Amino acid sequence: MNTTVDQLKEALAAARQEVAKVVIGQSDVIDKALIPIFTGHHALIEGVPGVAKTLLVRTLAHVLGCDFCRIQFTPDLMPADITGTNVFNLQRNEFALIKGPIFTSFLLADEINRAPAKTQSALLQAMQERMVSIDRETYNLSPNFCVFATQNPIEYEGTYPLPEAQKDRFMLKITMNVPEREEELTLAKRMLGKESPEAVLAGGGVRQVLSTETLAALRAQLELIVVRDELLAYIVDIVRGSRRNESVLVGAGPRATQALLLASRAASAIAGRDFVTPDDIKAMAVPVLEHRVILRPEFEIEGVTVIEVIQKILQQVAVPR
What we know:
Layout: H1 3-20, H2 27-39, E1 43-47, H3 53-63, E2 68-72, H4 79-83, E3 84-89, E4 94-99, E5 106-110, H5 117-120, H6 124-129, E6 131-134, E7 137-140, E8 146-151, H7 164-167, E9 172-176, H8 181-192, H9 197-202, H10 212-221, H11 229-244, E10 248-250, H12 254-270, H13 278-289, E11 294-295, H14 297-301, H15 306-316
Parallel strand pairs: 1-8, 1-9, 2-5, 5-8
Antiparallel strand pairs: 3-4, 6-7, 10-11
Helix pairs in contact: 1-2, 2-12, 11-12, 11-13, 12-13, 13-15
């Protein structure tokens, strides 16, 4: 393995180790959360309250040396509350930009589906182009700009479903489940002392392993991960298979192909390899495709799930040797 990929592997391993000091029992989630960061994309996080969704993103920002901002999405939130606005300065006799929370590196859009589409759309340009337009002026965002949007899977009253165009801009859908019994017991014991996850993070028990400049440099090293032509064809066939399945109303688009390729490459780096395997692609297929595939109503009524459909597609597509 060449030296630069070694550096990437070491940085990923160190980041995983530090985040695990705070976020207990979510090793798979931590790995998946690192993928959009190191590929320059965004993630949708779904989980019931109390599984450390917010804490995960705060900890990642600290460990990777990035700024962090949180927006609590509510029905009365306006686009200007996210992007910022120009305010007239009487002393200078001119308008001055008051930047909104979107001018950060890691943005946590908490319960994004509680705001109407008008407000949700304020993120579209930022997520796609890392720029934001305010009063006909365009401003650049951080090159490390990454949106983590959270959703509660069990409470849909008073919510606004995300438009398909916006869901497609999220590279992955990360599902956070409740921890196992032993992990929850460990959490309970830590809460009795001074080692609660929040206390560890606030008390300096988690070290910063990267800076914003280093993160940008390491992101470029992912291009050194080898992807064989047969695996490229395998990725394309999986995504195209989602469009041909009889139970699917709307399949994944070309952006899903790009996301699956980049996610598989990052997953191989997290695993400590400098080449992609079919198993990397299979592991990333559900997180990449789940939020992009829409089933036909008659199949949903019968209890068919998107995950089952994706797994069936993986069984049908020939695995390259």
